[in-house]
Specification:
It is a single chain. The chain is α+β, with helices and mostly antiparallel strands. It folds into 4 domains: about 80 residues, Uridine Diphospho-n-acetylenolpyruvylglucosamine Reductase, domain 2 (2-Layer Sandwich); about 120 residues, 2-Layer Sandwich (Uridine Diphospho-n-acetylenolpyruvylglucosamine Reductase, domain 3), CATH 3.30.465; about 120 residues, Alpha-Beta Plaits, CATH 3.30.70.2190; about 90 residues, Alpha-Beta Plaits (2-Layer Sandwich), CATH 3.30.70. The protein has 17 helices and 18 strands. The protein has a 7-stranded antiparallel β-sheet, with helices on both faces. A 5-stranded antiparallel β-sheet has the order 5-6-10-8-9. Strands 1-2-4-3 form a 4-stranded mixed β-sheet. Helix 1 runs antiparallel to helix 2, helix 8 runs antiparallel to helix 10 and helix 9 crosses helix 12. The longest helix is centred in the middle third of the chain and has 18 residues.
């Protein structure tokens, strides 16, 4: 502890009550203990802290904005680990407009990166509900997705280069703003999505894009999830790469939003108000608002005529567009207000999504009558947030006691439909013990060899992703 205080200053080594906020995960599911919380302010300080931990064999739990959903940033209960918070590494180092890149430190809040890019006349395309508090280091650690993956890809697709501190306290400077670099193994891709188990990402160089000239948003009432999948195919054909977002929400999910936030409401009357599903589409246009609106009306008009949609509301102003997106963004907040649920972050081929939801809903109702299926997500990239909430009269504790059984049922169904049990939230400690059931022996062995090669002491975020 004295060595850390000498390196960082006593104000940046937290213990006791000062450390408490770092010990509990955002969902309130995991609480751990730690020797202390180290808050370095530079990459050299990060390297110094890691080198000292390596010398002493002290485990390290990297933490960004502490908004993760799988417990990857929370220590275990032993109290033997050091939490390494990257929040003070929050500088925007460079914006290269001509190269369309931005280089930022890992503790930058995602929204601050978006704002800096916009001020330079560019778009940073990663966008998700926690963007006002999550940090880009955490986004990279879980290969975050969000609402624009359909057009721009996950965090990995948006990243050109990284700066990483290895488990030995060495600094790898891979901050290259190159679109093409085939000069060896792609170390960048190893660290992205590794949830702090291979090293500590301290900075990244990201791709930027031109700001769209116009964006159009529409909310579509749908008769079924099958209709949503058909509409997605029609939208892809009609809009091409201009289609930046395609979200889907079950009617009862929006019902939760209206229960918690009664000032919000659906902009439909008649048949559209009673639709079983709703989709939220966004198109980014490089020509003009009039061009975007004309394309929207043509494609969605054809969808109505074909029976893929019951009703359509197109936003005609930024305020109307924000109101439609606010419906989608309010879903996690409404869920949190209504109590804990059993959450799943899964991905499936678009062609299998409707079958998966139908089959899994039926399996859950047969085994646990009355539980509520809370289904929404990024249909455009096959990512569903398939959550299970309490049945009427069921206590929160009674539901959570079923979590291992529900995970097994849902994840087995995901696997049977050729999907993945983790789309964008990561594995952490939540899904660690589930992974061997769905990963092949060779794949798991390769992952363990990589871990052993890069972190032979096993000090980087132990107990996360892989079983010991």
């Amino acid at each position: 502890m004295t060595a850390l205080q000498g390196l960082l200053g006593p104000d940046h080594v937290l213990t006791g009550d000062d450390a408490e906020p770092y010990l509990l995960d955002w969902r309130g599911r995991y609480r751990g203990e730690a020797l202390a919380v180290a808050c370095p302010g530079s990459v050299d300080e990060v390297a110094g802290v890691v080198a000292e931990c390596a010398r002493l064999g002290v485990p390290i739990v990297p933490q960004g904005g502490n908004t993760g959903l799988c417990g990857a940033g929370t220590p275990d209960g032993s109290g033997t680990a050091l939490i390494l918070s990257l929040r003070r590494l929050n500088a925007i180092r460079e914006i290269d407009v001509e190269n369309d890149t931005i280089t930022v430190e890992a503790g930058c809040v995602l929204q601050a990166v978006q704002d800096a890019a916009r001020a330079a006349g560019r778009l940073f395309a990663l966008s998700l509900a926690a963007e006002g508090s999550c940090t880009v280091g955490g986004n990279l650690a879980t290969n975050a997705g969000g609402t624009q993956v359909l057009r721009y890809g996950n965090a990995r697709d948006l990243t050109l280069g990284l700066e990483v501190v290895t488990p030995q306290g060495e600094r790898w400077d891979g901050l290259r703003g190159l679109r093409k670099d085939n000069s060896g193994y792609s170390l960048r891709d190893l660290y992205i999505g590794s949830e702090g188990t291979l090293g500590i990402i301290t900075a990244a160089t990201f791709k930027l894009f031109p700001l769209p000239v116009a964006q159009s948003t529409a909310l579509i009432a749908l008769p079924s999830l099958e209709a949503a999948v058909a509409l997605l195919a029609r939208a892809r054909a009609g809009f091409g790469p201009a289609l930046t977002g395609f979200e889907v929400m079950a009617a009862d999910v929006l019902g939760q939003v209206f229960t918690v936030f009664p000032e919000q409401r659906l902009p439909f009357a008649g048949e559209g108000a009673g639709a079983a599903w709703h989709a939220l589409l966004e198109v980014s246009d490089s020509e003009s608002a009039a061009h975007a609106q004309a394309r929207f009306e043509s494609v969605l008009g054809n969808a109505l005529a074909a029976g893929n949609a019951l009703d359509v509301v197109i936003a005609h102003s930024d305020a109307q567009s924000q109101a439609l997106w606010h419906l989608r963004e309010s879903i996690p907040l409404a869920e949190a207000r209504l109590g804990k649920s059993i959450k799943h972050d899964v991905s499936l081929p678009a062609s299998r999504i409707a079958d998966f939801v139908r089959d899994t809903n039926a399996l859950l109702q047969a085994r646990y009558p009355g539980v509520r299926n809370v289904v929404f997500g990024h249909l455009g990239d096959g990512n569903l947030h398939y959550n299970v909430a309490r049945a009427p009269g069921q206590s929160e504790a009674a539901l959570l006691a079923l979590q291992p059984e529900v995970y097994r049922l849902v994840h087995d169904s995901v696997h049977a439909h050729a999907g993945s049990i983790s789309a964008e939230h990561g594995v952490g400690q939540l899904k660690r013990d589930e992974l061997p059931r769905y990963k092949g022996a060779v794949e798991l062995a390769l992952m363990k060899r990589i871990k052993a090669a890069l972190d032979p002491q096993g000090i980087m975020n132990p107990g996360k992703v892989l079983q010991s």
